[in-house]
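Quick review question:
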């Protein structure tokens, strides 16, 4: 009994927690001759290794600041049949990150752009790529604050350092010329160095109006799209799918 307690104490001291949960079961399997000592030890080590990986994944995902935890398996591809699932699964291999390429999701509100960008980002985070998610509105707020506090360069370096930066919902809020210029600086700093994932409800033809300058918009798009995969989603809003019958009934009544 003392030997067993010493073993438990040793595992606790070394921070080996998951193995302790299965230890008694494996001791019984070894005593019954169902597994050799080596087999039992190998499987216990595997259990602990898997638990450690899950903890690391959870930590990496947490610090990436995702709005929710969803994977491609949670996306209803049958609801948006024009989405190329094969293309998305290819992106999920993360070859685009190693090539410093970008991914741009374009589509109207509710089609699942944020879901897909987040799912791809979660894969990046679990693969230990330094990943961060931020809405365009929050990004602009942070950059404006940095300008006021005379620390813009430091803030740009902070966002430029991420191996994968996800900027969600470009086009939902107006920006002034100075802010547009600062956003361009960030995209320029990341160009051909790290990967940027963007979601937007704006067709590229409207970016000139949004940025207040066709020249600036073209400069941003040039760097975003040069090495990129563009996923255009044309379909109904997922958020309104349960209400579609109401819209159809109203239309018929009219």
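Suggested answer, residue by residue:
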């Amino acid at each position: 009994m003392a030997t067993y307690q010493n073993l438990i104490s040793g595992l606790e001291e070394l921070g080996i927690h998951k193995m302790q949960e299965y230890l008694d079961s494996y001791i019984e399997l070894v005593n019954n001759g169902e597994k050799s000592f080596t087999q039992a030890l190998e499987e216990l080590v595997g259990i602990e290794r898997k638990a450690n990986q899950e903890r690391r994944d959870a930590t990496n995902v947490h610090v990436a600041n995702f709005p929710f935890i969803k994977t491609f398996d949670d996306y209803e591809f049958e609801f948006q049949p024009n989405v190329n699932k094969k293309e998305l699964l290819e992106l999920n291999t993360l070859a685009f990150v190693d090539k410093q390429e970008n991914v741009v999701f374009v589509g109207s509100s509710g089609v699942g752009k944020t879901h897909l960008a987040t799912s791809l980002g979660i894969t990046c985070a679990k693969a230990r790529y330094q990943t961060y998610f931020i809405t365009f509105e929050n990004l602009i707020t942070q950059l404006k604050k940095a300008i006021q506090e005379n620390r813009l360069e430091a803030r740009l370096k902070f966002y430029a350092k991420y191996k994968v930066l996800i900027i969600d919902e470009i086009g939902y809020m107006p920006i002034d010329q100075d802010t547009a210029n600062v956003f361009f600086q960030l995209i320029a700093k990341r160009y051909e160095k790290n990967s940027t994932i963007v979601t937007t409800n704006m067709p590229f033809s409207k970016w000139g109006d949004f940025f207040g300058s066709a020249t600036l918009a073209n400069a941003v798009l040039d760097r975003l799209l040069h090495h990129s995969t563009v996923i255009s989603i044309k379909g109904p809003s997922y958020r309104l799918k349960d209400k579609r019958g109401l819209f159809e009934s109203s239309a018929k009544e009219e």
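Why it works: Confidence is low (pLDDT under 50) at residues 243-254. DSSP finds twelve helices and five strands in the chain.
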